[in-house]
Amino acid sequence: LGFEQGKNESCVFRHKIMDVVIIVFVDDLLLDGSHDDLVTVHKQIRSRFLIGDLDELSPTNPIDYIGLKITMDRDKIYVSMKDYVDKALKAMNWEHLAPSSLPLRGTIESSPLLDSKDRTLFMRGTGIAGWVVNALRSDLAATQSRICQYHAAPTQLALEALRTMFRYLKG
Question: Beta strands 77-80 and 20-25: pairing type?
Answer without folding.
Answer: unpaired
